[in-house]
Design a protein that fits this description.
16% strand, 360 residues, single chain, 39% helix, 2 domains, UDP-N-acetylmuramoyl-L-alanine:D-glutamate ligase, Rossmann fold, 6-stranded parallel beta sheet
Length: 360
């Protein structure tokens, strides 16, 4: 029996988020079973592309679709009118602004299957009024890291600066990913201040950029660094496009550190990417006992000590102690390429699986 053909719908964003990278990688991993269509405002071209597909895949949220919100709805309607499958992958739910959730209502109601990035997101959706009006064919999929390991490293200006600091004996804390309030990136500033108070020469590098929004994210971030007296020890790289430069920076980080408001969840691809550096990642643990059960790579990294879990409600002092412990411990290496391939195999199996997947 011939397997279904897919249409992977993506945006035309030049600077991509994790959701957009997942959407693009899905099309690439499906190889000759998928066509990739860029939502560029041409509705006629979109309809023509949909005709040749058995199923379309839409990922949400994607920032670049803000100005093209009609297209996902048109894609959803067209697929249903042609009696074809519409698979919606929801990477977030409660974390979205209510206006963004409202925009997703028609698409989610038209979906023939809904896949979630983590059991927490599935549970959030199940509690929403929209759940009762949507398909019961739902499942949870593991989200692979969106970075490929480079064959060589490039030492840019940031990497060279960090190298000089490391050689001078400075402990470098790192965090990879976008900077925004719900991620609690500023907690790393407080952890660095605690370490400094304990007599450790410490610096912090945030490998990513600030997310622009209604909040004064960047202003508040630097105001806190000033208040803590560590502004001269903090670097923010901005968006780094190439894996060679990215991992060139990672090489000079001693410990990566995250303190999430909800604890670690499997949708935190930035944690996975940081762990591929071979450096320890200290993060507060999940709230749910099954948070990582569907994600083989997360489980393996925790078991091998690459990801070091502390209490979900850990404070800055506890995190600082865990950071110091991590600097003295070994990290068990994993075959990152093989593990990522296995995750993508699980994703494709879930896309092909038409059965109802019960969710707890």
């Amino acid at each position: 029996m011939a397997k279904r053909r897919y249409l992977a719908l993506v945006s035309d964003a030049a600077q991509t988020c994790g959701v957009e990278e997942f959407a693009r990688q899905t099309g690439l991993r499906l190889a000759n079973r998928a066509d990739r269509h860029v939502l560029d405002g041409d509705i006629r071209r979109l309809k023509a592309a949909l005709v040749h597909a058995d199923a379309a895949i839409l990922n949400f949220p994607v920032v670049a679709w803000k100005k093209k919100l009609a297209e996902p709805v048109v894609a959803a309607l067209t697929m249903r009118l042609h009696r074809k499958e519409l698979i919606v992958v929801l990477h977030e739910w409660d974390a979205l602004d209510w206006k963004r959730r409202f925009v997703l209502v028609p698409v989610v109601m038209l979906a023939t299957r809904i896949l979630f990035s983590a059991p927490e997101v599935a549970a959030e959706f199940a509690k929403s009024p929209l759940s009762a009006l949507s398909t019961r064919r739902r499942g949870v999929i593991p989200i692979p890291p969106n970075l490929a390991l480079p064959t060589r490293l490039h030492d840019g200006s940031v990497a060279r600066t960090l190298d000089e600091q490391s050689k001078a004996g400075r402990l470098i804390l790192g965090q990879f990913g976008s900077i925004y309030p719900k991620k609690q990136s500023t907690a790393v500033l407080e952890i660095a201040a605690r370490l400094l108070a304990l007599g450790h020469d410490v610096g912090v590098v945030f490998v990513g950029s600030f997310i622009r929004g209604s909040d004064n994210v960047e202003r508040d971030f630097y105001a806190l660094a000033d208040k803590l007296g560590i502004s001269g020890r903090v670097a923010v790289t901005g968006y780094v496009a190439g894996a060679e430069e990215l991992f060139g920076i990672f090489k000079h980080v001693d410990v990566f550190c995250y303190l999430f408001s909800e604890g670690l969840t499997a949708r935190r691809a930035s944690v996975l990417a940081a762990s591929f550096s071979g450096k320890p990642v200290v993060v507060n643990g999940p709230q749910r006992h099954d948070a990582l059960s569907h994600h083989s790579l997360f489980r393996k990294l925790v078991d091998g000590g690459a990801i070091r879990l502390v209490d979900t409600h850990a404070d800055a002092d506890t995190m600082a102690e865990a950071v110091l412990e991590a600097t003295k411990s070994n990290v068990t290496s994993v075959d990152a390429t093989a593990e990522v391939d296995a995750l993508w195999g699980a994703v494709i199996d879930a896309l092909d699986d038409e059965r109802v997947v019960p969710l707890s």
